[in-house]
## 1
Amino acid sequence: MVGRPRILIVDDEPRTLELLGRALAVGDFELELASSARSALEALRRMRFEAVVTDVYFEGSNDGEEILRASRELQPHAAVVLMTGQPALETAVQAIKGGAYDYLQKPIDPVVLVAKLQRALRERSLDRAGLAFNELVEILSGMVANTIERVDPYTAGHGERTRRYCDLLAARCGVDAAAREKLELAAITHDYGKIFLDDLCFLTKPGPLTPAEYLAVQRHPALGAERLGRHRRLREVCQWIEEHHERWDGTGYPHRKRGTAISLPGRVLCVVEVFDSLATKRSYKDAWGLQKVLDFFETQREQAFDPDILDQFLPLLQAHGEEWMARPSSDRSKRRSSANAEGAAVS
Ligand SMILES: [Fe+2]
């Protein structure tokens, strides 16, 4: 776990949700609030949580059980604390048997809840002597991103943004949590092969590439997959990296794979990677506007991109497009100012 632990709080009473949200905000947690079982399940599919605090009865129905079951399935590492206003010993026993960490009776004392969550998180980190896969992803991602950005400063933050958007899109496309963790690594390292190209100068060349340069650049997906390593846990990661320039209609590279011959995570990565590249100013082009990007994806439906994935991606763009379009230039200025600050500190 890197950064503040993220907690999902679920309750259909707005007042309880607000009070718990306020009480837990001082506990140095990052909070996500959900007022129904449906939005809780959606959040569980969308992002990682270290703990889930949920009501049991929602307008008379026992949806807490479903949330507990989904948490165990989608986020087995997370501690689940159940809350109810109708305590019964059998229900509590049932909940613990179902995998809940604890069971609290309403009204909830925020101090008790914060202490319980802190203890649960501490116990879970003690359970693990080594680094979890997601922690390794965080650490390696930072290293690889720094390396790629050093040879191509125009890609500042591209890997990290691709990683975030891929995770959201993959969840909507039904990719399970374990595969999504690996996809995060593929997303951040998809351009790793660029650093092994014989000539790095044309990565930042102003204007279009010559046919020979374009052919040379096309080696980067396979180079990345080859040089990332042969560890058995990386097999799919390498496959998705190699697929990130393949196209639905078979016009991509390096293998001209077509349709579902490209893996589902590979197809997700193709869409997101193109989106962020279009939203970013590169040495050879300006950043596009949102409408132009939306029009582009519409025209490429069933050509470059899987239409089913676009059906999931375009609503995300409608919801987050303006923010996502502004991020490349703000990431680039942040990198520039931190590089300037480091330069000033050295001199
Ligand atoms: Fe690429």
## 2
Amino acid sequence: MRVLVLGGSGFVGRHAAAALRARGHTVVIGTRQPRRALAKLPPDLRASLHNVELREIHFESLTTRYIWQPLLSDIDAVVNAAGILRERGGETYDRVNNMAPAALGEACARLGLRLVHVSALGLRPEARSRFLRAKLVAERRIMASGADYSIVRPGLLDGDGGYLALWLRKVAAWPVHPCPADARGRMAPLHVRDLGEALAVLCERGGEGRREVELGGSARRTMAEYLDALRGAQGGHRALHLPVPALLAKLAGRICDLLHLSPISLGCLELMRRDNLPKVNHLAALIGRAPTPVGVDLPAYASGVGVVGRIRFAARELLQ
Ligand SMILES: NC(=O)c1ccc[n+]([C@@H]2O[C@H](COP(=O)([O-])OP(=O)(O)OC[C@H]3O[C@@H](n4cnc5c(N)ncnc54)[C@H](OP(=O)(O)O)[C@@H]3O)[C@@H](O)[C@H]2O)c1
């Protein structure tokens, strides 16, 4: 098959592209910057994608099916792993995360192409974040497009090179872990390589029976537990937990949104408040094996241990 991977140089897309190539497909990567797309890849992925075709694509101007169609004329299937976490100029949530994928769905329907669209877990119509709402509207419009689609909703991703994954690994390495006090939702983080493989398999299979595909890793953790597990994977002892009052976290999220600082955003904070778990986890069935473990659990606090006990426990761990 000839597969166009939109956002194919990004964290998710590069793994989908590499997995598709490894399975014998011809890959075309859609990117805003064909000259620089491969240079930003880690060496192993750059090697496996070295002579791939690169096609210049700008989602903000691809908001009708008529503009998409000529770009898809030599393509059998499309993986859409393009998306933005922050708006910039004409690259708005509405255009990049909603209108362009919706128009892509219509173009795929018209041309009879398979469409595998990467969305996310935890989207709700009541969400306050425009980022989350735009992604949900795109899902609904793709469902109504008539295309042979699969909408893939992965949980939080770990792996080398992801912007958010890198940030979380950095925070995990700190001796103190600040975490919003109301971040009580559990999530099932998965490895980005597993997601890439699952996307490649989904391209090969029709969407019938696989319209909404939710994916996660094996462990269920809150954000604080996840930071501990990342720290465990780095060989560290337990860090001190610093619960940040919800209002203060919200203020920090708002400031980061305004200044485009860090991946912390009101949308992320909103997601952390509720469980973000796959209703049915399709990952093992798609990749034919157990998900790659993400993080390593550290010894738990004994139940009933109060704040002073936790500080003592953490101090003992830090001194070991
Ligand atoms: N990372 C996670 O933990 C996670 C979890 C769940 C779901 N997801 C979803 O997975 C998708 C991909 O996320 P990611 O982590 O791979 O993000 P990423 O590393 O930032 O990659 C996004 C890609 O989108 C492309 N892109 C951005 N704006 C574009 C535009 N205006 N026109 C064309 N292409 C554009 C970029 O391609 P170029 O720079 O090459 O132009 C980039 O490679 C998103 O929909 C995200 O919501 C991510």
